[in-house]
Write a structure and sequence with these properties.
GO terms for molecular function: ATP binding; single-stranded DNA binding. The RecF protein is involved in DNA metabolism; it is required for DNA replication and normal SOS inducibility. RecF binds preferentially to single-stranded, linear DNA. It also seems to bind ATP. InterPro entries: DNA-binding_RecF (IPR001238), DNA-binding_RecF_CS (IPR018078), P-loop_NTPase (IPR027417), Rad50/SbcC_AAA (IPR038729), RecF_2 (IPR042174). This protein is about 40% helix and about 25% strand. The chain is built from 11 helices and 15 strands. The protein has a 6-stranded antiparallel beta sheet. The protein has a 5-stranded parallel beta sheet with strand order 8-13-14-3-15, with helices on both faces. β4 and β5 form a beta hairpin. The protein is globular and about 70 Å long.
C-alpha cells in the first residue's frame, strides 16, 4: 500500500496544508526551520498514530490552537482509504486522540491493524548507539509494539504497576504492613515483566540471526534484568532502604558488537562514527525485514536529512534500500547527486 497524500490542520507549523506524494520517491526541499521534519512527522503520525520527536504530544498541535487533524490517503491504484488522527487538548499538557478509518471511529489498535507501516531514518538515531540504555529500550519497545499488538499493553501495565509499587515504597510508614501492600503489585509487575523480557529476547535473537549488512557483521548482547518473585524477595531489604524498585526490564540494556574475524568490539565504546551509523542502518534494515515478514506489506521509508551526515559507503547503502520502497526524503538541497537517476516528486517548503 502506498501513501498518496496528506492533509495537516493545526499540526506543528502547518495551519491547513495538503501534499501529494510520488509512488517511488518524494523529495521535500527547503531551508532550515521551514517545516520539512514536521511534514515528515505528520506522515509518521498519520501512519503510527503518534509523533516521533518527543513524548509531549500537545506540542504536535499548533501553538494557541486546541485541536489538530492529520489525514493520510493510503491504498493502491484501485482503492484508497482515508486514515484520520484527531488530537484534542484536554489540559495544558495533555492530548486526547481519536482515530478514524474511512470516517468510521476506531480504537488505536484497530487503526494500527488496518494501517500500513513506516520506518524512520534520521541522523539523531545515532543515539541508539551513543545514547543511554533508556534510548535503546525505547527503540526496541517501539519495534515490538509495531509487530506485537499485546506488547504495548503489557508495557503500559508494567509501567503503571511500577509507578504504584514505587509510591508504596516511597511513602510506607509501617514496615510490618509493607509486604501485604506490595503483594498485588508484585504479582502484576512479575507477570508483565516476564512477557516483556521474553519478547525483547526473542527480537534480539532474530537480529542475531540476520547479522550482515554491507559486508559487516553485527551482533547484540541482551543485558536483561529479570523480575521474578524470587528476585523480588532477594532485593526486598535493599528496596526498603532505597524506597524504590531496583530490578526489572526498566533496567535492561543492549550492547552492540561489530565483528572482525574472531574478534568483536563494543561500538558504543570503540566504534568510529561511520561504524556506529552502519550499526543503526543494520537495526533499521532488520526493522523493515520483520515488518515485511509479519504483515506482508512494504513499509514507507521516511528519511530525515540523512544524506548530509553520511559517508560515501553509507550513502550507497541507503540508495540500494530506497530503490525498493516508496520513500520520502527531506533535504536543504534540491539537487542531491545521489538521487539524480531516480524519478522523483519534489515538494518545496
Amino acid at each position: 500500500m502506498l501513501l498518496s497524500k496528506i492533509h495537516l490542520h493545526n499540526f506543528r507549523n502547518f495551519k491547513d496544508s495538503k501534499f501529494d506524494f510520488g509512488s517511488s520517491l518524494t523529495l521535500i526541499v527547503g531551508d532550515n526551520a521551514r517545516g520539512k521534519t514536521s511534514l515528515l512527522e505528520g506522515m509518521y503520525t498519520g501512519i503510527h498514530g503518534r509523533g516521533f520527536r518527543e513524548s509531549r504530544e500537545f506540542e504536535l498541535i499548533t501553538w494557541h490552537e486546541a485541536q489538530a487533524l492529520v489525514e493520510v490517503w493510503i491504498g493502491d491504484r484501485e482503492v484508497e482509504t482515508i486514515f484520520q488522527v484527531n488530537l484534542q487538548k484536554i489540559e495544558a499538557d495533555r492530548v486526547e486522540k481519536t482515530f478514524y478509518v474511512s470516517k468510521s471511529k476506531k480504537s488505536y489498535f484497530q487503526y494500527k491493524r488496518l494501517q500500513t507501516k513506516a520506518v524512520l531514518f534520521s541522523p539523531e538515531q545515532i543515539s541508539l548507539i551513543t545514547g543511554s540504555p533508556g534510548r535503546r529500550r525505547r527503540y526496541f519497545d517501539e519495534v515490538l509494539t509495531t509487530i506485537d499488538k499485546n506488547y504495548g499493553k503489557h508495557l503500559r501495565n508494567y509501567e503503571n504497576a511500577l509507578r504504584q509499587r514505587n509510591k508504596i515504597l516511597e511513602n510506607y510508614i509501617d514496615e510490618s504492613e509493607l509486604e501485604s501492600e506490595l503483594e498485588f503489585w508484585d504479582q502484576s509487575i512479575v507477570s508483565d515483566a516476564v512477557y516483556i523480557t521474553a519478547k525483547r529476547a526473542s527480537y534480539i535473537e532474530y537480529l542475531n540471526k540476520h547479522p550482515q549488512v554491507d559486508g559487516k557483521k553485527f551482533s547484540l548482547d541482551y543485558k536483561k534484568d529479570e523480575c521474578t518473585k524470587d528476585r523480588l524477595e532477594e532485593v526486598f531489604s535493599l528496596e526498603k532502604r532505597l524506597r524504590r524498585t531496583t530490578i526489572g526490564p526498566q533496567k535492561d540494556d543492549v550492547v552492540i558488537y561489530l565483528h572482525d574475524g574472531n574478534d568483536k568490539k563494543d561500538i558504543h565504546l570503540y566504534g568510529s562514527r561511520s561504524e556506529q551509523r552502519l550499526a543503526v542502518f543494520w537495526l533499521k534494515l532488520n526493522e523493515i525485514r520483520i515488518i515485511e515478514e509479519n504483515y506482508e506489506v512494504s513499509p514507507v521509508l521516511l528519511l530525515d536529512d540523512v544524506f548530509s551526515e553520511l559517508d560515501v559507503s553509507n550513502k550507497k547503502l541507503v540508495m540500494r534500500v530506497i530503490e525498493e520502497y516508496q520513500t520520502v526524503i527531506t533535504s536543504t538541497d534540491d539537487h542531491l547527486e545521489e538521487l539524480a537517476r531516480m524519478p522523483e516528486k519534489v515538494i518545496r517548503l
